[in-house]
Amino acid sequence: MATPAEKLAETTEGPALVGVFMNLTLYGVMISQSVFYYTNYPKDPTWIKAYVALLVTADTLNAVFICVWIYRVLINNFGNQAALGIGDWLFETEQALTGIISFQVQMFYAWRIWKLVGNRWLVAVVAITATIGGLSGIGTAIAIGIRPEFLGLIHLKSIIICWLLGEGISDIIITVVLTWYLRRHLGGYSKTDGIVTKVMHLIVSNGALTATFAIGDLICYFATDEAYHLIFNFPLCKLYGNSVMSTLNARAIFMTSSKDAASAYQSDPPIRFNQSGRPDITGILATSVDKTRANQTQIMVNVETHEMSDIQGQEHNPDDIKAGMVV
């Protein structure tokens, strides 16, 4: 039969350790996506590059702090029951940084909604819920500093509800608005509609994943006095960072780019057309000077040109061009 100390470790540090493993796994994905971004989008605006750097820095600090915390509890205080189920300042940074990162990510999506839809009310709702969630995350960290016992977290219902519910609602609103906007711009062309559909799937999967973890964290928090909610809580900030990076990097897959890798975030990016009125897509896949790969690229460009020949001579809606900002 398990001793009280073993039972406490299983219900507090056990779920926390699982959450730390998930956090670090997603941190590795975040680093890979960041390297991919800086390598492939050197002409993005400086503020977006700085934004990505800020996200990576916050994610790095979060990973370092929770690793040091779990090491101190399980290694430095091995056999010390008094150290179990207690959150010190390192543990508190997890809630604070999750609130800060989720706020950064959701405000970025609010900016995109403003650029695409131009509805200030939708932007205001996203901004308000994101602010409530972010500030409540910081407030939760402060409250844990006042009452650090894990078993005491059940007494922080009000602020934790504001934190996790605010984040979840904001994620749902962002997903619904962007998906609705893209569905409005389905133009009946199989090529472009296929790309738009893939973008919608990406948006829904990202928004659903972060919202599910936030709501799952809240449900586990209310369902039991034990710390199983940490399994959902610890990976949450990494999910937010990866959601932004996946949409930024999706341009390499979904969006047709020119040879000079023009940014999809430049205002009103021009689309060039050749003399026959077809979109000029030469150089879409040209990434190497290797002769063999160059020949393969030429073949694929010809196929693209043939498939898009049905739009020759038709007008191009400026809204369809602006839709490129979604990814």
Automatic annotation (TrEMBL):
Domain DUF6534 per the UniProt entry, residue ranges: 169-252
Keyword Plastid included in the entry's annotation: no
Chain segments annotated as coiled-coil in the UniProt record: none
Organism superkingdom: Eukaryota
InterPro entries on file: DUF6534
Organism: Rhodofomes roseus
Entry keyword set: Membrane, Transmembrane, Transmembrane helix
Protein name according to UniProt: DUF6534 domain-containing protein
Transmembrane segments: 16-38, 50-75, 121-146, 158-182
